[in-house]
Amino acid sequence: MERQFNAEIESLKLGEGETFHGEGILAVTKALLQSGVSYVGGYQGAPVSHLLDVMVQARDYMNELGVHVEACTNEASAAAMLGASINYPARGAVTWKSIVGTNVASDALTYLSSAGVQGGALIVVGEDYGEGASVAQERTHAVAMKSSLWMLDPRPNLATIAHLVECGFELSEASNTPVIMDLRIRTCHVHGSFVTKANRAPALSTRNLQADAARFDYEHIAHPPATFRQEKLKSSVRLPAARRYIRERQLNELFAGSEAGVGIICQGGLYNNLLRALQLIGLADAFGQCCIPMLVLNVVYPLVPEEITGFCSGKAAVLVLEEGQPEFIEQEIATILRRAVEEPGMEGLAQTRLHGKDLLIMAGEYTAEVIVHGLLGFLAKHAPQLDIASGTRWCEAVDAVRARAAGLLGAPLPPRPPNFCVGCPERPVFAAIKLVERDIGKRHIAADIGCHSFATFAPFSLGNSILGYGMSLASSAGVAPMLAGRSLAIMGDGGFWHNGFLSGVASNQLNGGDAVLLIMKNGYTSATGTQELVSSPHEESAELIQEKSTVRSERTIENTLRGAGVTWLRNVYTYRVADMAKTLKEAFTTAAPGLKVIVAEGECQLERQRRIRPILARLLGSGQRVVRTRFGVDDDTCSGDHSCIRLSGCPSLTLKASTDPLKVDPVAHVNHSCVGCGLCGEVAHAAVLCPSFYRAEIVQNPNAWDRYLARLRAMVIGWLQPA
Ligand code: SF4
Ligand code: SF4
Known about the structure:
The chain is 40% helix and 17% strand. By secondary structure, the protein is α/β, with parallel strands linked by helices. A seven-stranded mixed beta sheet has the order 3-2-4-5-7-6-12, sandwiched between helices. It contains 25 helices and 26 strands. Bound molecules: iron/sulfur cluster (2 copies). The site of one iron/sulfur cluster has 10 residues, from helix 22.
């Protein structure tokens, strides 16, 4: 029931000499097929989810080509898949969100990089860094360096991206080393076109099977004593081979410019922002013509010393643009230059001033504005002959707009954090927790990764820590024994299968923990794009009934928990706020020993709406009766204290001016986006709020009985209303 990618799948089938139009991440997907990839795996996450989502939906076409596609249960299993390329000449690609996914995968990556590969191994990571990011901020570069994995950071241009995918496989094979393709958020989502090649059916594939398993060779096993030799091979053989390939194939791009006395070295992924900044200063046009020479590093690790010294030679100063911290590239360039001046004929390099983090921010995204500031400082110092006045004026204009906005507001702009979808099944659970807190006081809440982390924002403001995907229960293991009241760990079903079962539940059972675990069972990995899980509902559950188990699978979370020895186990429908509050209170106060697990059941509303929309359209189209539920607030009854909004947070629940002149405050109002989940009525009931809420049924294609009832009701209401 995920989003459909029919158009994207068609674009994967383009042949020789045709033109692909679309997003960067889809260009990568197409380029994998052009490169003859044998197998693809991964774990979804922004900004690279599309790669796997499209490939999974294109399974029929992948089968035609003989490409195996695997939706892995976490990044570690995806990384381990690349083990196929150690012994076999098969090209493989895996994908995930970084840095978080890379952390999960790093054990397998360490072993993979030690053993080395025969077939090209490409790890496509979505570098979730900067203003659009959704995870803790760190760079993947450090992982590449510590594991001796080469790292591509392509210039955001579809032809370059597609070319580098193919070169990535070749680089991997030329140096027997896995290659990371680091795709920034902007690179994944950049739109453009490139001329395609025909897809290559892989030599070793699901359609072209190898008769025998690979011969035994201890050198392919990352195990002592082979690991000692492998560690040496990384720097003595694989690194020189990689540098040779990078140089010969000119993977890094040199853009000449008339101002030969200065230069800029930038990570490939920053090129578009750099060009925009230079354009704002008046030193470049929108087509890439620029007077400052640039060395664009499409390969950020390893650097090629000859390319660095060649670019810096004869320059008074060079600026390094490197996003994030610490400044690995700048430090390596400094080392390369310092070593080079000792060589005959290279003494002139001692005169080249190296700038980078001294002129630019250490941490955070390098937006065009950040880069403009850095460039102005650099150029004022080392290229005073250039007219950079337009850049200064632009910065002043931006500052003036900000100052004016702040003046008009009279206060800093309030943040607009993300929120649960309208009618989300997870919202009622947090309303219930708030109600329970009124009775038993505040409890330590270990939050997790997933939609439920939105509860850390107002109006709920619930959660004390987040330690990673599926790590909530594990993260409460230290704090729970030191607190008088039982702590609560919350995770989604996505987190449960990703990591939570082993890291949390199994560990709790081993150590006799006494925590309360609440699992949001909405049926999908909702936060990453509603991909399916091992316990996702089967297709036949496409009925319109909402209050039912979302799971029609025997591979249930409940069976798994029972198998692990959990005995205190409750399953509560999330929209039943009073039941949820009662169960939570029982879990917090019961004398029963061991882990208390509440499975909070309610299908992801986003996915439910996607599921039922075509069904409703079909019913309406065939003239059948359809009933939709909506909630509303009676203006006359609402007192305007807004308790309902504080306990719900649904975007459909808003305010409007009261028509009663005696009411000063605006009254609550349910707008047209309400999906009738029922939470409003439940909260009003469970919290003993007020009788303002009403439930209405919207009947389309009414039958004779509906019409009769409507007439009868109108008549009775007419009698009761004063003339
Ligand atoms: S995607 Fe689903 S689970 Fe996530 S906030 Fe929306 S309705 Fe809730
Ligand atoms: S019933 Fe209330 S909580 Fe549910 S969608 Fe409508 S306004 Fe939102």
